[in-house]
Specification:
globular, 6-stranded mixed sheet, 33% helix, alpha/beta
Length: 177
């Protein structure tokens, strides 16, 4: 069975890099954007806003994607992948744009604290802090926190499950790998 051409291109590109555990972390982080580029187009959405919120011992960057200026839209908290050690808002920007555009929901992407500098549960704590901010500010970004979905990619899926198991009242989980 042949791989889809887009996936075959990604596999070929990935084979040119050292394995993550064989390269310095700084080099892996620096190459993440190229390595993980899925080729998804950077679709236009109504508005994108970068926000900094207070977290446990650090400032947490968020990126809010809005399809338009409507109020009361469903809300998706997106948690990026990257082995808990790489990636962030920029590496998953195209994916978040796609999710926003196709779902019609407000998407909030969180750049949680990465290991090894911030060991577990720092990333999960940042996601919890983000949820706390969303509960208090959903109206400001046009979202309805009672229509919340948690979406995570790879390591982010693990964090989304952690949030769900801790009692977060989410209507849906979208776990991507």
């Amino acid at each position: 069975m042949d791989l889809h051409p887009q996936l075959a291109g990604m596999v070929e590109k990935a084979s040119r890099y050292k394995r993550m555990n064989e390269a310095p972390l700084a080099a892996v982080r620096g190459a993440a954007a190229k390595l993980l580029d899925t080729g998804l187009p950077r679709e236009t959405v109504g508005a994108i806003e970068d926000i900094l919120i207070d977290g446990p011992g650090r400032t947490i960057p968020l990126r809010v994607y809005r399809p338009d200026d409507s109020q009361g839209r469903a809300l998706i908290l997106f948690i990026h992948g990257g082995g808990f050690a790489i990636c962030g808002l920029d590496t998953h920007d195209a994916m978040c744009r796609q999710i926003c555009r196709r779902s019609g929901a407000v998407v909030v992407s969180v750049e949680y604290a990465l290991a090894p500098e911030h060991p577990f549960p720092a990333g999960l704590d940042d996601c919890r802090s983000t949820l706390g901010w969303l509960y208090g500010n959903a109206g400001r970004i046009g979202a309805d926190v009672h229509r919340l979905a948690l979406c995570g990619d790879s390591a982010g899926a693990n964090l989304a499950i952690g949030l769900a198991l801790s009692g977060v009242d989410a209507r849906a989980l979208a776990l991507v790998y």
